[in-house]
Design brief:
160 residues, alpha+beta, Immunoglobulin-like, 4-stranded mixed β-sheet, 8 strands, flat
Length: 160
Amino acid sequence: MFCLLLACSVVNGEEVAKEQIKGLDEQVQDIKKDVLGISTELNLLEEKLLFPSNTQVSFFVSVAKDSGFEPDGIELKLDDKEMASHIYSFKEVEALQKGGVQRVFTGNVRTGDHNLQVTVIGKKGGSKFHDTASHSVSKGVGPKFVEISLSGSGIGFKDW
């Protein structure tokens, strides 16, 4: 009889331990979700603090559809100061050719007119391509977005 009671208490003890572990796993998952949510909120807050909307400027790169252009690299200068440069991987080129847009730079710029100079190297139809173009960026109050469109026959700009 004593052996039967001992076996029952061992089985009950195992079930309680499994339920406690399962409960702890659920609590850990809930805590992970909370931490990820807080992290996302902190990242957004950090971006707002580092790049306030009244001084924020962002430059995006796209490749013109059906242009056959394959960018190798790009360099951005604003008021003769290097702001960003990027060397493209095969997957990035593929994404751009499918209509993707890449944010190359986000930063703070005071209001007024600024000179953006873009240098791009790449290939079109097997031929090497190298071009430099300038664009006047007029920064007012509020965020400023500029799209740099690459086509292999030139560099285009679109202000938002």
